[in-house]
Amino acid sequence: MSFTGETIGPDLAANWGLVSRVVPADGLLAAANELAERIAANPPNAVRMTKRLLREAMHTRLDTLLEMAAAFQSLSHQTDDHRRAVAAFLSERAAHFKG
Which of 52, 54, 49, 35 is nearest to 99 (CA)? Predict the structure, then answer.
């Protein structure tokens, strides 16, 4: 596609794993908002670190990336949000994160 400029349809894009979900055009905004709400419901610092790891993965060696992931995980375990998540899990309720 990069070399030919050919386009593909949504079904083929989904089949190839290029998109995670196909929605009708009139449902796109609602689907995007639903996904944004699901992301926003997670611990903000963990989401931020995950985004950083994804960006670093584009130009960093695997061993370095794995070290960063381990360091970020260790940092995440020291947060109030982690304590909230563990308490919510043990209480079988939803966690509410503050960041």
Answer: 49
- Per-residue pLDDT tens over the stretch 20-61: 999 999 999 999 999 999 999 999 999 999 999 999 999 999
Q: 51: number of CA atoms within 13 Å, CB side?
A: 9
38-48 confidence digits (pLDDT tens)? 999 999 999 99
**Distance of alpha carbon 61 from alpha carbon 98, whole angstroms:** 33
Nearest-angstrom CA–CA distance, 13 and 69: 30
Which run of H or of E encompasses 30?
helix 28-40
Q: Which two tokens stand for residue 79?
A: 């947060």
